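We examine the record.

___
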Amino acid sequence: MFSKACEYGIKASTYIALQSLEGKRVSLKEIASEIDSPVAFTAKILHQLAKNDILESVKGPYGGFQIQKERIDAIKLADIVYAIDGDSIYKGCALGFNECNAKQPCPLHDKFVGIRDELKHMLENTSLYELASGLEVGLTYLKR
């Protein structure tokens, strides 16, 4: 459903949020290791997230990535998805056809519209805090 970059972006943001709640800043290498992603690919994703004000990048010997505690609940999953994948998840065809809309629907178009609307609602109403606190109590895992 999401691109691989977006999946890693969600995992990285969640891990950074969890560490930020504990007052910690985390390094690129630590994040890449924790989410099981190549370091260079992770750096590119983190750059996109920082550019879109999802997280902060602090340079220097005590640098790393963090999210201000007071912002963690305000950041929604939709913000992260948009920063990495844009809004294509809300517009693309369920079957991947180039032309698919109400006037020229694919066989799944009418069914997929409802699913897409539910997905959008879930992404816009799920905070990064919810994801991080789920990790904190062991409800989810970053690595497979």
